[in-house]
Amino acid sequence: MNTETDNNLYKAILSAIVRHGIFNTFINEIPMRIYIKDTHGKFLTANKAVADFVGVANPDDVTGKTDFDFFPKEQARRYFDDEQEIIHTGKPVLHKEEPKLDKSGVKREIFVTKMPVTGDDGKVIGLLGFSTDLTERIQAEEKLIEERNSLRTLINTLPDFIYVKDTQSRFTLSNTLHTKFLGLNSPEDIIGKTDFDFFPKDIASSFFADEQEIIRTGKPLFQKDEISPSLHGNTVRVLTTKIPLKDITGKIIGIVGVSHDITSIIRMEKNLGEVNTKLSKTLNELKQSQEQIIQSERLRALGQMASGITHDFNNALTPILGYSDLLINGPGILEDKNATLNMLKDIRTAALDAAQTVRRLSEFYAPARKTERKPVDVAKLIESTVGMTRPLWKEEMAAKNVSINMVTRLDSTGNVFGNESQLREMLTNLVFNAVDAMPRGGTLTLKTRTETPFIVIEVTDTGIGMSDEIRSQCFEPFFTTKHKRGGGLGLSMVHGIVRQHSGEIEVKSSEGKGSTFTIRLPETTMPVEQEKTRQATPSGAQQLNVLLIDDEEVVRQTIEACLKSDHHSVSSAIDGKHGLELFNKNKFDLVITDRAMPGISGDNVAVEIKKINPNIPVIMLTGFGHIMRDLKQCPAGVDLIVSKPVTRDSLRDSITKAFSHKKH
Ligand code: ADP
């Protein structure tokens, strides 16, 4: 108090506060227990907080009572002794921790202050006490500590670098991993340092610039791909996220950073990439060797076919040689016109058969035909397969003194839509396997029947059969039990062909008894294309001036004769050079040229002819016509490819076609 006036004013206000009950109201509202006791421990006054604590309705109920009225005897005695000590010594107790159980038995953290009050004579006349219950605050503090500890444990356990920096980019926190990465032992050592203490200047500058930008704009930085080469020698590749750190008022006080180490992922990705490249290379090599094996498998089949072809060819040659011999040497035969004509007809049929045989051979290996699909008569397909494979199951086996009885039951007249040569390859493979399975002979049955919507083909043998183990693997590529003889691709090819035709295949087999392969292919209602019947009579077409180029005299003569019989005029050339000379000197309507010739090849002849006169049709006549057509090979300048051998009819058709197909 400065002045007496102030002092008086203060006293007046104090007395008014007490008089008007303001003091009591104030004391009652304070969340602190306040009381005054006499020297015997009797409450002279107490506030509401005391009443609440001791469990009475209002403060007046406390007045006149002692602690013994409210607390267990021992506790009350303790308080009493403490207070008597204060009264006798005159020394206050300040902020003493005095845990107490409340009325429901819960421990409360109470801090007590008790002051002796002395009278005018200096003697202690009473006690002013107040106590604060800090239970909630202490609990909150404990909770905070617990939370902070779990947070610490969490950030120290996370496999990422976690750090906090102030607005100057000085570290205020760093987790264990980050501390270690920077080459320090304790997170405390990092506090106050900056990236300039740990990284090369340019890198630290870039980190600093990013952080200052975040602090300036409040915009976080997400997943930045960074390379962090620490001065300590560790280099990592990280994805860094930095977000602004704000205080309660929203003011930015720094940044929180999380850097996720992706070094090993990148290394793994690189390794994976290398492994992938190696795998693709190996796969390519595998594909190549698979193609080689398929090719050699096909060659093996082709070899077996070749003996069949030879057989058919010899069959075809028999009437040709026999009848021509008779016609040349048989006395008087030529006089019998009818007999001569019949023999010539048979010769022609045999020659056509031979041509057909060669065509079948080419069908077997023609690759381009793989995509060509048309309605196929299944019964005819089986018949032709039986015919083609006959040398294998008949002649060859007979030579080994073994007999295979071939039975066909063709109960279906239906067609399937598919690739004829592939389907034939499928059946041939099954026949090969069946024959292999019957080294001591047996019965091979080929059946077909309709089971709408499928045409069913069954190939049954009475051979060695298969164990369950072999049966379950037999369709796998390269699976074979024939080691030296088999490549193990036959059935996998069969399986592939069936699947490409949207069909199904199953096998039933019993060891020592035989096997049945059942194939179901969707039936088609489309009819099989009929072979065009050839016109037997000359087509009254216009007479042409034809240039014929072929180095083979017999061919030249035959074709010339055919053309002339249709009233065309023919100039023959013995090779390409000769042909071009004739073409330059004369006027022709059509050129027919061989392909493989000494000197200028047929391909070049066609090109030269077209240079001279692009309007003249060029027919290329070749023994490889089928293959060229299958491979869709048509040399420049050639309008039509025709396969040798040709008949007069087919030649006539080809000429008509060449004029309509002519390239412009
Ligand atoms: P390969 O004939 O070259 O061995 P395949 O794929 O055609 O290859 O056949 C695989 C295996 O399936 C054969 O080695 C054989 O063990 C078994 N197998 C196939 N067909 C028959 C069959 N008709 N009878 C008994 N076993 C067969």
Overall structural domain count: 4
Query: How many extended strands?
Result: 24
Radius of gyration: 56 Å
Would you identify the regions where 5 or more consecutive residues have pLDDT less than 50? 532-539
Chemical compounds bound to the protein:
adenosine-5'-diphosphate
What would you note in describing this structure?
With 664 residues, the protein is of the alpha+beta class. The protein has 4 domains: 103 residues, Beta-Lactamase (2-Layer Sandwich); 124 residues, PAS domain (Beta-Lactamase, 2-Layer Sandwich); 219 residues, 2-Layer Sandwich (Heat Shock Protein 90), CATH 3.30.565; 119 residues, Rossmann fold. The chain is built from 18 helices and 24 strands. Helix 10 runs parallel beside helix 11. The protein binds adenosine-5'-diphosphate.
Core attributes:
664 residues; Heat Shock Protein 90; binds adenosine-5'-diphosphate; Beta-Lactamase; five-stranded antiparallel sheet; 4 domains; alpha+beta; 24 strands; seven-stranded mixed sheet
SSE layout and pairing:
Layout: H1 4-19, H2 22-29, E1 33-38, E2 43-46, H3 48-54, H4 73-89, E3 93-97, E4 100-101, E5 107-108, E6 110-118, E7 124-133, H5 135-157, E8 161-166, E9 171-174, H6 176-181, H7 201-217, E10 221-229, E11 235-246, E12 252-261, H8 263-329, H9 337-365, E13 374-377, H10 378-399, E14 404-410, E15 415-418, H11 420-436, E16 442-451, E17 454-461, H12 468-473, H13 490-500, E18 504-510, E19 514-524, E20 545-549, H14 553-565, E21 569-573, H15 576-585, E22 590-594, H16 602-612, E23 618-622, H17 625-630, E24 640-643, H18 648-661
Parallel strand pairs: 14-16, 20-21, 20-22, 22-23, 23-24
Antiparallel strand pairs: 1-2, 1-7, 3-6, 4-5, 6-7, 8-9, 8-12, 10-11, 11-12, 13-15, 15-19, 16-17, 17-19, 18-19
Helix pairs in contact: 8-9, 8-10, 10-11, 11-13, 15-16
Adenosine-5'-diphosphate is lined by residues 433-434, 437, 461, 463-466, 470, 474, 479-482, 486-492, 515.
